[in-house]
Design a protein that fits this description.
Length: 98
């Protein structure tokens, strides 16, 4: 269950940045962290709390090795897989295939 609170400044900066990711494209937690001068873990925690999902597309953020990662705090979420597949992204064994 998501906490009932307003997003922090950092969380809002994460949501603003991921809003720039085009449909059918992905970015890694590490790449996003570098842009925000933060850590991949902090980015993941912000995405876990995304109150705007899927409008603000946190499902487009993946692990560096291609694993899809979690969605709304759930590991290897079927919902995230479905959202990515609906955007034309190929996934095999919970990994993005390019």
């Amino acid at each position: 269950m998501k906490p009932i609170r307003s997003p922090t400044k950092f969380e809002e900066s994460v949501y603003k940045e991921i809003s720039k990711i085009p449909k059918g494209k992905v970015i890694t937690y590490g790449m996003l962290a570098k842009i925000l001068k933060s850590s991949p873990r902090a980015v993941g925690q912000a995405l876990k709390r995304n109150p705007y999902a899927p409008i603000v597309p946190c499902h487009r953020v993946i692990h560096t090795d291609g694993r899809i990662g979690g969605y709304n705090g759930v590991s290897n979420s079927n919902k995230k897989i479905k959202l990515l597949k609906n955007e034309g992204i190929k996934i095999i064994d919970n990994k993005i295939k390019t």
